[in-house]
Fold this sequence. Notes:
This protein is an alpha+beta fold. It has 27 helices and 27 strands. Strands 2-1-5-4-3 form a 5-stranded antiparallel β-sheet, with helices on both faces. Strands 7-6-10-9-8 form a 5-stranded antiparallel β-sheet, with helices on both faces. Strands 12-11-15-14-13 form a 5-stranded antiparallel β-sheet, sandwiched between helices. β19 (656-664) and β20 form a beta hairpin. It is rod-shaped and about 235 Å long. The chain starts with 11 loop residues before the first helix and ends in a 9-residue tail after the last helix.
Amino acid sequence: MARLIDHARCSKPRRYLVAAGVTALAAGLRLFLAVTLEPRPPILLLFTGAAGVSAWFGGLGPALLTIALSSVLDVCFFDLADPVHQWTDLVDLGIFALVALAVAWLCESLHTARRLAEDRARELALVSAGERAWKDRYEAAVRASGHILYDFDRSSGRAMFSGACLPILGYSAQELGERIDWSALVHPDDLPRYLASREGGSLAVEYRVRHRDGRYVTLHDVGEQVHDAGGQVVRVVGFLKDVTAQRQAEALVRASEERLRLAVEATGLGVTATVFARDGSVRFEWTREARRLFDVADDVELTLADLLARVHSDDLPAARAAVQAALDPDGDGSDNLEFRIVRRDGSVRWLGCQGRTVFDNSVQPPRPLRNIGILRDVTERKATAAQLAESFALIDALVMKAPIGMAFIDREYRYVRVNDKLAEFNGLPPAGHIGLTVAEVVPTLWPMLEPFLRDGLRDGLERVNIEMEGDPRGSGSLRHWLLSQYPIRVGDRLLGVGITVIETTAQKRIEASLREADQRKDTFIATLAHELRNPLAPIRNALALLAVARDSPERSAGVAVIGRQVEQMAHLLEDLLDVSRITRGRLTLRREPITLASVMARAAETAEPWIHSRRHRFDVDLPATPVILDADPMRLAQVFSNLFTNAAKYTEPGGAIRVSAVVLDERVRICVADTGVGIAAEHLPRLFEMFSQVGPTQSRSEGGLGIGLALARGLVEMHGGQISAHSEGLGHGSEFIVDLPLAVADTATRPRARPGPVLAARPSGWRIVVADDNVDNADTLAMLLEAFGNEVHTVYDGEAAIRACAEFRPDVVFLDIGMPKLDGYDVCRWIRQQPWGARTMLIAQTGWGQDEDRRRAEAAGFDHHLTKPADPDRLIALLSRSADPRSAA
């Protein structure tokens, strides 16, 4: 009902209409009663009630309207209209107004009080509902968080529990609060600590509590004491948190950290932690092993300056750069450095450092927070690495610079490593081989190499010194190699094959040359036998003729034949000796200024018998001005006599030989051309080699030993010149060109006139000893000397020579060098030691004709050295040059 007359719920016009209506109703009722009742009802009764209704329904404003209207109506229509009762009615009107106002104020106050009460009631209802919702949400949150709430009453000793009691302990909150003594669940070892916390100790404590299934759960108890007015603790409230899993995890972490520490210590690694504070300070939290590696005591506070002071001065710039790079926020924060430290005892150790810096990216620029790293001693590894580097460098140098080709090929036939020599063989740089297959590098050789490599890469077979030939570069030049392959394994796994390649092209050429030289040697020996037999035949025939012809022309002819053939054999042997001397560098030139014309004349004189006998036309065209050479006249004449003789031999009878010379700058070029048989092109490159023959020797009786041109080239080159041959082919003749230097100004003086031959008288009246183990040579020489009128004593060994000289006291002694018992050198020395031996002429006669043999004979005391067969004319000249033997030169 109260809600029906609540003027706050009605609109303002409605409340005032209600007030006017109530006033009209009261006026109508008083009018009605005034007619029917006597005396008239007072204004206080009806209009006061109308004012009360307006105030109750509409509030103070409508009530005031009712009072105003009631007063107006009363004045106009009721009491004041009667003059008799006018003053009494005014008093009643006044009382009415006061009473009506009191009633209106009272109604308004009641309405206000009622509204305040209702508002308070509503507020109280809302608070109670919020508290209940908050409490429900809090308990749900506590249960969800896994905590237990408790309220312990000190006076009763009982506790109330809520939250996650059942999940944590297996008991409900009601069971824990009503039927179970909490202290009975606490582990006996932890009970004193728990009770102490309840007696005023620490309100944060951990202890173990028995679960319903018998296991113990570790709880973290945090509480707060509640005091009464007197300051006494009456209650303890708090919460319990299950930290069993956390403590187990911490135990596992501690065990893991301990294992890690032991492992790190066992490996010798030191762990470093560097913390960077906001104020710029740095704190080093290094393990004991890290301090030991850096040679820092455990109780010393580490500073960056102290650590850098330990770093070797040569490595300090790199260490500073690594620190700056690790602290650079634009980098990745990593550091990886190896450096040396100098320990307190002066020793130097290598350390390796690896770490990473963590940055605070919430600020700009990012600030370093900490750096975590490890330290390790790498001194031994560095030493080992240095040794390995030296070994690898040595091996690499040996492999890369080896004179044989070497490579490693993987199972896909690809080059992995190639040395310089194999790269040279293949015509491709070493780096150009890597990654390419053998077929790609040497496609022309792949058909031959594929089965060879397959044996190693597929079957793991080793092949050694396999001969192979081919043209890897496609140049048209055939090359030869010896190939070997060695399978390379790691355990049971085949990595590939190592191959070695030895080029034998030069060796094959040498072998071919040796075979050719051996063939030329056989030809030379056969030719030499032929050339030696040729003179022996007429000598034998001449001897037979001498045996039957006495003092007749045939006897003189036989002697002439023997002389010519012996001279030919001597010339043949002398050429062989000259070639040997040139080959060994033992030939000495006796240079002097000579004219080219004199050399040509001497050479032509030597070759004249051949030219005359074959009826050749011989033309010489020399410059009008004398051409002066600084040369050995005998040796240079020997060169051209060989050329002239060859031209005469190899030109058909009636041919032509032309010699011409031209001066070009400081040299003279002499050309010897003929119309002979010519030279095949394939023979020209080997024409000046020893024992070289341009065709079968049996086909031409004039063919020599094949040493004349080799001797000519050697003599020309010794004079600083060159010799070459040209021919258009067989049947087109040949041309030999000799290029010689002219004599320089200092030596180009007028050539000396060579003395003519000295006609010596036949020596006679000498006492002579001939000692030679060749009986025929000794006897024939003795007979020759006796025929000249000398007294000759002949012996055949060294001891007999000494006895004969001691007894005979000779003027001249001919000694063979290679005699039995005592050689000629010993006999010569013995003679020179005798008082009479100083005046004796000693002549060495031997088959050894090298310059070294001549020097040795001179050192032993010989006056002269004659090479067998000795020229009788020279022998006579030696004995006839002076009146006594010791004056002979």
